[in-house]
Amino acid sequence: MRKLALSDEILMTIEKPARYIGGEVNAVMKEKEAVDIRFAMCFPDVYEIGMSHLGIQILYDMFNQREDIWCERVYSPWMDLHKVMKEKQIPLFTLESQEPVKNFDWLGITIQYEMCYTNILQILDLAQIPFEAVNRTKEHPFVIGGGPCAYNPEPLADYFDMFYIGEGETQYFRLMDLYKEWKVSGASREDFLKQAAQIPGIYVPSLYEVNYKEDGTINTMQPNCPEAPEKIKKQMVLDVTDTFYPEKPVVPYIKATQDRVVLEIQRGCIRGCRFCQAGMLYRPTRERDLEMLKKSAYAMLKNTGHEEISLSSLSSSDYSQLGELVNFLIDEFGSKNINISLPSLRIDAFSLDVMSKVQDIRKSSLTFAPEAGSQRLRDVINKGLTEEVILEGAGQAFEGGWSRVKLYFMLGLPTETEEDMKGIAWLAEKIAKRYYEVPKEQRHGKCQITVSTSFFVPKPFTPFQWAKMCTKEEFLHRAYVVNHEIKDQLNRKSIKYNWHEADVTVLEGILARGDRKVGAAIRRAYEKGCLYDSWNEFFHNDLWLEAFEECGLDIDFYTTRERALDEVFPWDFIDIGVSRAFLEREWKHAHEEKVTKNCRQGCSGCGAAVFGGGVCYEHQN
Amino acid sequence: MNIRIKFRKYGCLKFIGHLDVMRYFQKAMRRAEIDICFSEGFSPHMIMSFAAPLGVGLTSEGEYVDIAVKESLSSKEAVQRLNAVMAEGIDVVSWRLLPDTSKNAMSIVAAADYEVRFREGYEPEDGWKDRFQEFLALSEIQILKETKRGHQEVDIRPWIYDCHLEGDVIIMQVSTGSVHNLKPELLMKSFGDWAGIEIPPFALLVHRKEIYADLGNEHKRKLVTLEALGEEIG
Question: Above 0.90 for ipTM, yes or no?
Answer without folding.
Answer: yes
